[in-house]
Design goal:
The protein is of the alpha+beta class. It folds into three domains: 142 residues, no CATH class; 282 residues, Metallo-dependent phosphatases (Purple Acid Phosphatase, chain A, domain 2, 4-Layer Sandwich), CATH 3.60.21; 110 residues, no CATH class. It contains eleven helices and 27 strands. The strands form six sheets. The chain has a seven-stranded mixed sheet with strand order 12-13-20-21-23-22-24, with helices on one face. A six-stranded mixed sheet has the order 11-10-9-25-26-27, covered by helices on one side. Strand 12 and strand 13 form a beta hairpin. Helix 6 crosses helix 9. The longest helix has 17 residues. The two termini are 49 Å apart.
Length: 544
């Protein structure tokens, strides 16, 4: 795993001038309760300079139909400049955070850029553009804290594509690249992948989006973030601010915390965790994280010291194509002996093995150490318990890690507190990557009293949203709705599963996305296929 710098880098921002914020007026009725708007280029609200980018913020005005921004012929940069595009995150009632990476196409040599646009009006739509870009990004501020105003959000997940499985087995995807500049900046090469995202943009303009994770195929590799996240999903990131639950394909990679800003506070501030909550007016959203296992790529020199090494016939076969024949033969003297890391390295040095040869042998000879290993110095709250894959030529291994039981318990207690402390909200929504309920009973954690169904029924949760299973499904138990919405991918889908008759309502195979329109007296969930036709609608009542 590569080391990375601070998750957020402060950037000096110069406000060139600021005009009074312009409130958005409402236009024609939207079929899902919303009204349309478009940018008002005559109403310049702010002009902000950040690095080599100038961000112009505009007011909005009513429109008779959904307004779609033109697009640049480039994907990673803005207009004719080399400045990156900015995507919105964490809108507040008076501000919004704009995020970018200086080099989306070269993330290993990039640095994060963050600028918060302040002094905005609550519950108001704005648009912004970067330099001379043709693209204008829509963003809407929250209503004032504690107040309610109708809003709309989308639900998607599991957009990852079927990329390069052999690269995963060989642990070498980071040796791949996007290609030569400027060919990789050609937006035409990024238009076909996520057809479902484009369908969503043609149909709705949400206040924010919820992703239930698995946005890329393998979060351990830079090229995946460059291609799938910032390339393919550019127009998802710039449709509305995204709140994301971590999926198993993100692999607990620290870049998740660098690229997605989390609304963390209080007990949620734990190293390398991905559970959080936020409120939008009188609705409260809770993201939980119960990825039980994940794989991490570890350089052989960084493997925990408690692991052991053993030279076997399989090890000799594994290094036979990597080492000279005489070195393979010399290893026979160590056959069937088990060593600690320092002892094995000393023996190999005595036998005149070079540094690279030493690494190859240790990679091939690594065996599991203790049944449960405390590796808190390597990654908090995780224990490695299985060697999944190894690459002797690169000196890398893929170790399966598991979440610490104490963290399970901590998160369960935190979830109970979140639900109890937001009992006054009109709506309570909970989301995660792994399913709460589909193809079996409602999920239980290995800690806590009872299952999620007991906890959610006790606190009157409105609905839960999950993914992992690539499709759409609706189950209901004890008044709580359980939705599967993992169908944003255009190419990767799961087979339909049997679901218990006592909870099953509906399920569907194939690409889709989901929209929720939240009103004072109801929230209406509507699921759309890729042709923007409705296939499932549910009315959710406010809590008491």
């Amino acid at each position: 795993m590569r080391p990375y710098g601070p998750a957020v880098e402060s950037v000096l921002v110069a406000v060139l001038f600021a005009l009074p914020s312009v409130a958005s007026t409402q236009g024609a009725d939207h079929p899902g309760f919303r009204r349309f708007d478009r940018p008002d280029l005559e109403q310049v609200v702010q002009v902000v300079a950040v690095g080599d980018a100038t961000i112009t913020v505009y007011g909005s005005q009513p429109a008779d139909e959904l307004w779609q921004s033109p697009r640049d012929p480039v994907v990673y940069t803005a207009g004719t400049s080399l400045a990156p595009y900015f995507y919105p995150q964490l809108p507040m009632h008076d501000s919004v955070l704009l995020c970018a990476e200086t080099k989306y196409y070269d993330l290993d040599n990039s640095r994060p850029v963050r600028v918060r646009i302040r002094g905005l009006e609550p519950n108001t739509t704005y648009y912004y553009r970067v330099n001379d870009s043709a693209e204008l990004v829509r963003v809407r501020t929250q209503p004032p804290p504690g107040t309610f105003s109708p809003f709309q959000f989308t639900l998607t997940g599991d957009s990852q594509g079927p990329y390069d499985p052999p690269g995963d087995k060989n642990l070498n995807k980071d040796r791949h690249g996007l290609g030569a500049w400027p060919a990789i900046n050609d937006a035409a090469k990024f238009q076909q992948f996520n057809i479902t995202t484009n369908s969503m943009r043609r149909h709705v303009a949400p206040d924010f989006s919820i992703s239930i994770g698995d946005v890329i195929m393998d979060g351990r590799y830079t090229v995946q973030w460059e291609r799938e996240f910032f390339g393919w999903l550019k127009y998802y990131l710039t449709q509305a601010p995204v709140y994301m639950a971590m999926g198993n394909h993100e692999r607990r990679d620290p870049r998740c915390w660098r690229y997605i800003e989390l609304p963390l506070s209080g007990r949620q501030r734990i190293a390398d965790r991905y559970f959080f909550s936020f409120s939008w007016g009188q609705a409260h959203f809770i993201a939980v994280d119960f990825n039980r296992h994940w794989e991490e790529i570890v350089d052989i020199d960084d493997v925990p010291a408690s692991y052991r090494y053993k030279i076997t016939e399989d090890v000799l076969s594994g290094v036979s194509g990597q080492l000279p024949a005489e070195k393979v033969h010399a290893l026979g003297a160590l056959l069937n002996h088990e060593y600690g890391p320092e002892t094995l390295q000393a023996r190999l040095k005595e036998m005149d093995f070079s540094g690279d040869e030493n690494r190859s042998v240790r990679t091939a000879a690594l065996i599991k150490g203790d049944e449960r290993v405390d590796v808190s110095e390597y990654r908090p709250n995780a224990g490695h318990h299985q060697i999944m894959r190894r690459n002797v030529s690169l000196g890398r291994v893929s170790l399966m890690a598991t979440m610490d039981e104490d963290l399970w318990r901590y998160q369960w207690e935190w979830l109970e507190e979140e639900l109890a402390s937001n009992d006054d909200k009109k709506y309570l929504f909970v989301f995660s990557h792994h399913p709460f309920c589909y193809g079996g009973p409602v999920r239980r954690l290995p800690v806590g009293e009872g299952g999620f169904d007991d906890l959610f029924e006790k606190h009157g949760v409105t609905a839960t949203f999950s993914g992992h299973w690539h499709g759409f499904a609706h189950n209901r138990k004890s008044g709580v709705h359980y939705f599967q919405i993992g169908a944003l991918s255009d190419t990767v889908f799961s087979k339909l599963q049997e679901s218990p008759k006592e909870t099953f309502v509906f399920h569907r195979h194939g690409p889709s996305y989901t929209v929720v329109d939240v009103e004072h007296d109801r929230a209406v969930l509507t699921a759309y296929n890729r042709e923007n036709n409705t296939f499932h609608t549910v009315t959710l009542a406010p809590r008491n």
